[in-house]
C-alpha cells in the first residue's frame, strides 16, 4: 500500500528543530505543531518522534528540562541550543536549495 | 568547545549511573504524551474507551520507542560485553577441569612463541641501548655492478674517506660517527688476554649521547692526525674484572697489541657499544695502524671497514636522510666506473647490517613457523575441547536460538568465553616465557663452543614483545573459538533439539567431521616437528661418528695472532721455527706441522687460478701447509711426493692437489707435472696427489682443493698442529709454556682439532634441541587431543555400546570399532605430515650438515612411534568402554 505523508528520509530531525525554533515545546507539542503547520499533510509517527528528540539531545542540538505543562503535568520540555540553531539554519538552507532544484527538474517538460 | 561525540559520551556516562531515573523519565514522557492525545480525542467527541486505544494506535510501538531511546543513552556494546564476560566466567568456573586443560595448552603455545619472539626482538628488533635511540640510524651500502673492493669485515662497511665525505657533506644529521667493529687486540700484562674493541671516530660518545662514568670521552683533537693520540676508553666490565675497579686507572697506560695507550675514561656500566659482541675498549679511529700494524686502512679509499651510525636532526624523516645521503653516494660512485651503490638506512639495531639482518630474519622466520605450529596444535586441542563441550550444550544453545537469541549474539558470547581462555593462557604463558627465556638463552649464549664470541643481548620484554603476545593471544582466541562457535550455533535447530544426546552408530556424533579434521591436523603438524627433530638428531649422530678421512683424535692446534703483535716476515719465521723445535721435543709428541687453515675450521681461503691454455679463471680453495702436514693428519699421498723443507724455505713454485681435483682439472691425464697459475703470481707445478678428505666441508670430498707450500711470507699467519700420544690434555700446557718462553705477551689459543667439528655440530645441536623440545611438546598436546576425542566419543556412545554388547558383541568387537574410528583421522594426518616433512627435509638438508632428506630411520621410526602413542591414547578410553556393564549403559542418561 502506498502511503502519502511519510517523511522523506532524514527530514524528521530538521522538522523537529524547526518546531522548536520559536521556543520550548514538549514532545506532544512538537508532533501537533508539525501536523498543524503542514495543514494535516505530514503525519509524524509519534513513536519515532521521541528517539529523534533524544538523539538530538545527545548530539547537543537540543537541551531538555522537566517542567510543568499547561494542564499541570510533569513534562519534558525541549529547546534549541546555539548549536541546534546553527544546524537548523544550515539544514533549512540545504533544504531550500534541494527542493528548489527538485521542483525545477519536475517542471521541465 | 568539546567535540560532539565527547559531549554525547559524557551524557551517556552520567546516564549510566541513573539507569532507573532514565527509565522512569521515559515512562513519564510516554504517559504524558498518551494522556494529552487521549484528552484531545475525548474533546473531539470520541468515547473514552475508544480514545485511549486511538491514542495508543497513533503512537505506534511504545516498547520499541523506549528500547530505542534506552539504547541511545547507554553503551550497549560495553554492557553486552560485560554481560558476556560475566556469563563466560561463570561457564568456565563451572567446569574447572576443562578450563585448566584449555588454559594450560594455550599457555604452553603462547609461552613458547613469546619466548622465541623476545629472543628475536633482543637480537634484531630492539633499538640500541642509548638515549634517544629512535633518532639514531645505521647506514650501510650495497654495491651493484662490477668493481673491486677490499673488504675487512663486511662489504657493507665504509672506508675512512667515504665516512669523511658523508660526515662533511650531509645535511640531515646532528652527528655521524664511524667505528671499526670487532677489532681484536691483546691486552698486555702478566696475563695477556684477547679483547674485542672498536676504533671509533672522536664524536663517538657525543653522537651516541653516552657519557663516560669516569674521566672523559674523545674530543676532536684526539683524532687530529693518524697515530698522534694513543688514548683509550675502557668498558666498565673490563675495568671491574681486570683492573679491580681501580679509581686511579684514568691517566695510567695500558698495552694494546704492544702499543701504549693512555686510559682517558671508563664507559658507563652496561654500555658495550653497538654490536652484539660487547666492546671492551674504544680507541680513536686514527690509531688504527697502532692496533693493526699489518694494514693502513686510513689511507685506503676503497676498503670496507667502518660502520656508520648517525643521529638524525629533529624533524628530518628517514626519506630525507636517504635522499640526502644518496646524492653523496652517487658522487663517490663517479670515482669507480661501473659501480652503483644503494644505501640501506634503518633505525639502528643490533645485527642491523644487511648480511646479518637477512640471516637473523631467515632463521627467526623458520623458528617462528615451528613454534607457530605448536601453537596451532594447542589451538586445535582447545577447539576440540570446546566442540565437545558445545555438543553437550547443544540443547541449551538450540533452545536459546529458538526463543529468539540471534546467532550473532550466541557466537559473540561463545567467542567471549574462548577469548577469556586465551587471555588467561596468554598471560600465564607470557609470564612463564619472560621468566624462563631470558635465563635459557643466556645459558645457551654463555655455553657456545670454543671460538664463538660471547654475545650480550637484552631479551627482557618491552612494549613490542607485550604487543606481540597480546596480539597473538587475541588471534589465538578467535582461531580456536570461531569454528566451534559457528558449529555450535549452526541453524538446523529442530534436529539438534530432537537429537538424542547419545548419538548413533556409524557417525562419531555431531561435529565428528570437524573434530576428526582437528585431530588429523594435530597429528600432521606433530609429525612434521618430530620428523624434523629426528632428522636433526640423526645428522648430529653422523657428525659425531663420521670419519672425515683424516685423523683428529690425537691432534692439538695452537694459534696466535702474530700480525697484530707487530711480527714481520723474519721474526715470524724465527718464532715459528723455534716454537716447532721446542714443541717437537716435548714428551709424547710424534709430529709437528703447520697450516694456514686447520681442516674443517670455518675459515676458507680461495684464489683465482688459471689453467694454461684457458682464459677463464677458476676459484680454487687452498691451504698453505708445511712438509709433514699430510703424514701428521694421516692423509696418504697417492702419487708423487710431499713438499720439502728446502722447498718451503725458498718458496718453491710447487703444489699438491687432491684426487678429485686431479680428476676434475686433468681428466684422464696424469696430474703430476701439470701447471696452474695463481692470479698475479708465477706458475706452480703439481708435485703430488693426496687422497680426498673432508677438509673443507664436513661430509664433502668432491671439492677442488689445492695445497701450497707454506713459505716465509705466510709464517705470520700459520697455525701449529701437534700430534701426540696423550692428545690435548697431555700437551696443552707444554705448548703454552713453549710459546710463553719465546714471547711472554703473546696470547696463545690451544684447542683440540676435534673442536673444529663443533662449528658444524652446534647449529645442528641447537636446532635439534629446539625442534626436539617443540616436538615433545607437540606430541604431548596431540596425544592429549587424541585421548580427549576418543574418551568423549566413548562417553557419548555409551548407550550404543551397551546395545551392541547386549546383542552379543564382545569387548574385542567394541574395541575394534572404537579404535578404527579413532585411528582414521590419525592415519590421514600422519600421511599428510610425512608428505609435508619430505618437503621440509629438502630445505633442512641444504642448510644443516648431515641431513639425508630421505633418512629411512627418521621417516619410518617417527611415524611408527607417533602412531603407537596415538594408539595408546585411544586404547585407554576405549578399554574403559569395554568394561561397561550393558545394563548400566542402557540406562545412561
Structure commentary:
The complex is a heterodimer of chains A (109) and B (893). Chain A has 109 residues and is α+β, with helices and mostly antiparallel strands. In chain A, 54% of the residues lie in helices and 15% in strands. Chain A has helices at residues 11-19, 27-37, 46-58, 82-107, and strands at 25-26, 62-68, 74-80. Chain A has a three-stranded antiparallel β-sheet. Chain B has five domains: 4-74, no CATH class; 76-126 and 356-497, no CATH class; 133-348, no CATH class; 509-546 and 758-893, no CATH class; 555-757, no CATH class. Chain B contains 27 helices and 23 strands. Chain B has 893 residues and is of the alpha+beta class. Chain B is globular. In chain B, helix 12 runs antiparallel to helix 17, helix 12 runs parallel beside helix 23 and helix 23 runs antiparallel to helix 25 (811-847).
Task: Please name the defining characteristics of this protein.
heterodimer, A: 109 residues, alpha+beta, Arc Repressor Mutant, subunit A, three-stranded antiparallel beta sheet, 4 helices, globular, B: 893 residues, 23 strands, 53% helix
Secondary structure layout:
The complex is a heterodimer of chains A (109) and B (893).
Chain A: H1 11-19, E1 25-26, H2 27-37, H3 46-58, E2 62-68, E3 74-80, H4 82-107
Antiparallel strand pairs in A: 1-3, 2-3
Chain B: H1 4-16, H2 19-43, H3 48-59, H4 62-72, H5 76-94, H6 96-125, E1 136-145, E2 150-151, H7 160-169, E3 173-187, E4 193-200, H8 204-208, E5 214-215, E6 231-234, H9 236-243, E7 253-256, E8 259-266, E9 281-284, H10 288-291, E10 303-304, E11 307-312, H11 318-333, E12 339-347, H12 354-392, H13 394-402, H14 407-446, H15 463-488, H16 493-498, H17 512-545, E13 555-559, H18 569-584, E14 589-595, E15 605-610, E16 618-625, H19 629-633, E17 637-640, H20 645-650, E18 654-658, H21 659-665, E19 675-678, E20 683-690, E21 705-709, E22 719-724, H22 727-742, E23 749-752, H23 756-796, H24 798-806, H25 811-847, H26 856-882, H27 886-891
Parallel strand pairs in B: 2-10, 4-9, 6-8, 16-21, 18-20
Antiparallel strand pairs in B: 1-11, 1-12, 3-4, 3-11, 5-8, 6-9, 7-8, 13-22, 13-23, 14-22, 15-16, 15-19, 17-20, 18-21, 19-20
Helix pairs in contact in B: 2-3, 2-4, 5-14, 6-12, 6-14, 6-15, 7-11, 12-15, 12-17, 12-23, 14-15, 17-23, 17-25, 17-26, 18-22, 23-25, 23-26, 25-26
Amino acid at each position: 500500500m502506498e502511503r502519502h505523508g511519510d517523511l522523506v528520509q532524514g527530514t524528521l530531525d530538521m522538522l523537529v528543530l524547526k518546531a522548536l525554533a520559536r521556543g520550548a515545546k514538549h514532545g506532544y507539542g512538537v508532533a501537533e505543531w508539525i501536523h498543524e503547520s503542514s495543514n494535516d499533510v505530514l503525519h509524524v509517527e509519534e513513536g519515532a518522534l521521541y528517539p529523534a528528540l533524544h538523539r538530538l539531545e545527545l548530539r547537543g542540538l537540543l537541551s531538555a528540562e522537566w517542567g510543568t505543562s499547561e494542564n499541570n503535568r510533569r513534562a519534558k520540555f525541549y529547546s534549541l541550543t546555539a548549536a541546534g540553531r546553527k544546524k537548523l539554519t544550515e539544514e533549512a538552507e540545504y533544504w531550500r536549495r534541494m527542493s528548489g532544484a527538485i521542483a525545477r527538474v519536475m517542471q521541465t517538460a | 568547545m568539546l567535540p560532539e561525540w565527547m559531549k554525547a559520551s559524557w551524557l551517556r556516562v552520567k546516564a549510566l549511573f541513573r539507569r532507573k531515573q532514565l527509565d522512569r523519565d521515559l515512562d513519564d514522557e510516554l504517559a504524558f504524551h498518551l494522556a494529552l492525545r487521549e484528552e484531545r480525542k475525548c474533546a473531539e467527541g470520541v468515547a473514552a474507551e475508544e480514545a485511549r486505544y486511538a491514542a495508543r494506535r497513533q503512537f505506534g510501538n511504545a516498547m520499541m520507542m523506549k528500547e530505542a531511546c534506552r539504547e541511545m543513552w547507554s553503551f550497549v556494546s560495553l554492557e553486552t560485553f560485560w554481560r558476556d564476560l560475566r556469563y563466560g566466567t561463570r561457564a568456565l568456573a563451572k567446569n574447572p577441569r576443562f578450563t585448566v586443560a584449555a588454559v594450560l595448552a594455550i599457555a604452553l603455545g603462547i609461552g613458547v612463541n613469546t619466548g622465541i619472539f623476545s629472543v628475536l626482538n633482543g637480537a634484531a628488533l630492539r633499538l640500541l641501548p642509548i638515549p634517544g635511540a629512535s633518532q639514531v640510524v645505521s647506514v650501510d651500502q650495497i654495491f651493484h655492478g662490477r668493481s673491486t673492493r677490499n673488504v675487512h669485515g663486511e662489504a657493507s662497511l665504509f672506508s675512512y674517506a667515504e665516512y669523511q665525505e658523508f660526515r662533511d657533506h650531509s645535511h640531515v644529521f646532528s652527528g655521524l660517527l664511524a667505528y671499526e667493529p670487532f677489532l681484536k687486540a691483546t691486552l698486555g700484562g702478566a696475563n695477556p688476554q684477547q679483547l674485542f674493541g672498536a676504533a671509533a671516530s672522536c664524536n663517538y660518545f657525543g653522537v651516541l649521547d653516552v657519557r663516560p662514568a669516569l674521566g672523559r670521552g674523545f674530543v676532536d683533537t684526539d683524532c687530529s692526525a693518524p697515530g698522534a693520540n694513543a688514548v683509550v676508553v675502557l668498558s666498565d666490565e673490563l675495568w671491574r674484572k681486570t683492573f679491580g675497579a681501580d679509581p686511579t686507572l684514568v691517566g695510567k697506560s695500558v698495552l694494546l697489541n704492544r702499543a701504549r695507550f693512555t686510559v682517558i675514561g671508563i664507559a658507563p656500566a652496561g654500555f658495550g657499544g653497538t654490536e652484539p659482541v660487547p666492546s671492551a675498549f674504544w680507541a680513536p679511529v686514527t690509531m688504527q695502524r697502532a692496533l693493526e700494524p699489518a694494514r693502513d686502512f686510513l689511507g685506503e679509499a676503497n676498503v670496507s671497514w667502518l660502520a656508520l651510525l648517525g643521529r638524525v636532526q629533529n624533524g628530518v624523516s628517514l626519506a630525507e636522510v636517504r635522499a640526502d645521503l644518496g646524492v653523496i653516494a652517487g658522487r663517490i660512485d663517479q670515482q669507480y666506473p661501473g659501480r652503483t651503490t644503494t644505501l640501506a638506512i634503518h633505525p639502528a639495531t643490533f645485527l642491523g647490517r644487511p648480511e646479518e639482518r637477512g640471516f637473523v630474519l631467515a632463521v627467526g622466520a623458520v623458528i617462528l613457523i615451528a613454534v607457530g605450529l605448536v601453537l596451532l596444535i594447542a589451538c586445535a586441542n582447545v577447539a576440540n575441547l570446546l566442540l565437545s563441550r558445545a555438543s553437550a550444550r547443544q540443547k541449551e544453545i538450540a533452545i536459546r536460538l529458538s526463543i529468539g537469541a540471534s546467532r550473532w549474539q550466541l557466537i559473540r558470547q561463545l567467542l567471549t568465553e574462548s577469548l577469556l581462555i586465551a587471555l588467561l593462557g596468554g598471560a600465564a604463558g607470557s609470564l612463564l616465557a619472560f621468566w624462563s627465556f631470558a635465563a635459557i638463552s643466556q645459558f645457551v649464549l654463555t655455553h657456545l663452543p670454543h671460538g664463538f664470541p660471547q654475545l650480550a643481548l637484552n631479551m627482557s620484554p618491552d612494549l613490542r614483545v607485550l604487543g606481540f603476545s597480546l596480539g597473538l593471544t587475541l588471534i589465538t582466541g578467535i582461531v580456536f573459538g570461531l569454528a566451534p562457535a559457528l558449529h555450535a550455533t549452526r541453524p538446523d535447530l529442530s534436529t539438534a533439539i530432537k537429537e538424542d544426546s547419545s548419538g548413533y552408530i556409524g557417525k562419531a556424533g555431531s561435529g565428528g567431521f570437524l573434530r576428526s579434521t582437528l585431530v588429523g591436523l594435530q597429528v600432521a603438524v606433530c609429525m612434521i616437528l618430530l620428523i624434523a627433530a629426528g632428522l636433526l638428531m640423526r645428522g648430529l649422530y653422523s657428525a659425531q661418528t663420521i670419519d672425515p678421512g683424516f685423523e683428529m683424535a690425537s691432534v692439538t692446534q695452537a694459534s696466535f695472532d702474530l700480525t697484530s703483535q707487530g711480527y714481520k716476515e723474519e721474526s715470524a719465521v724465527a718464532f715459528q721455527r723455534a716454537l716447532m723445535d721446542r714443541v717437537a721435543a716435548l714428551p709424547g709428541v710424534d709430529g709437528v706441522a703447520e697450516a694456514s687453515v686447520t681442516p674443517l675450521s670455518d675459515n676458507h681461503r680461495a684464489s683465482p687460478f688459471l689453467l694454461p691454455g684457458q682464459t677463464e679463471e677458476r676459484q680454487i680453495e687452498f691451504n698453505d701447509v708445511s712438509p709433514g702436514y699430510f703424514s701428521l693428519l694421516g692423509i696418504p699421498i697417492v702419487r708423487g711426493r710431499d713438499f720439502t723443507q728446502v722447498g718451503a724455505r725458498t718458496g718453491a713454485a710447487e703444489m699438491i692437489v687432491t684426487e678429485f681435483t686431479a680428476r676434475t682439472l686433468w681428466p684422464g691425464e696424469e696430474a703430476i707435472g701439470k701447471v696452474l697459475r695463481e692470479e698475479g703470481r708465477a706458475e706452480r707445478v703439481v708435485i703430488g696427489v693426496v687422497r680426498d678428505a673432508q677438509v673443507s666441508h664436513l661430509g664433502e670430498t668432491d671439492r677442488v682443493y689445492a695445497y701450497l707450500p707454506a713459505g716465509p711470507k705466510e709464517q705470520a699467519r700459520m697455525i701449529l698442529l701437534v700430534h701426540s700420544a696423550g692428545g690435548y690434555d697431555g700437551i696443552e700446557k707444554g705448548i703454552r709454556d713453549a710459546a710463553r718462553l719465546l714471547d711472554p705477551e703473546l696470547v696463545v689459543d690451544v684447542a683440540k682439532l676435534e673442536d673444529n667439528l663443533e662449528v658444524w655440530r652446534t647449529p645442528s645441536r641447537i636446532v635439534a634441541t629446539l625442534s626436539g623440545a617443540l616436538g615433545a611438546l607437540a606430541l604431548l598436546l596431540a596425544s592429549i587431543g587424541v585421548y580427549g576425542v576418543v574418551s568423549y566419543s566413548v562417553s557419548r556412545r555409551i548407550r550404543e555400546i551397551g546395545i551392541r554388547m547386549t546383542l552379543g558383541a564382545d569387548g574385542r568387537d567394541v574395541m575394534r570399532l572404537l579404535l578404527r574410528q579413532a585411528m582414521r583421522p590419525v592415519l590421514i594426518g600422519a600421511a599428510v605430515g610425512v608428505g609435508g616433512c619430505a618437503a621440509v627435509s629438502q630445505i633442512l638438508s641444504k642448510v644443516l650438515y648431515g641431513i639425508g632428506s630421505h633418512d629411512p630411520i627418521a621417516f619410518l621410526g617417527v611415524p611408527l612411534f607417533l602412531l603407537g602413542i596415538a594408539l595408546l591414547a585411544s586404547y585407554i578410553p576405549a578399554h574403559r568402554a569395554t568394561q561397561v556393564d550393558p545394563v548400566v549403559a542402557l540406562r545412561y542418561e
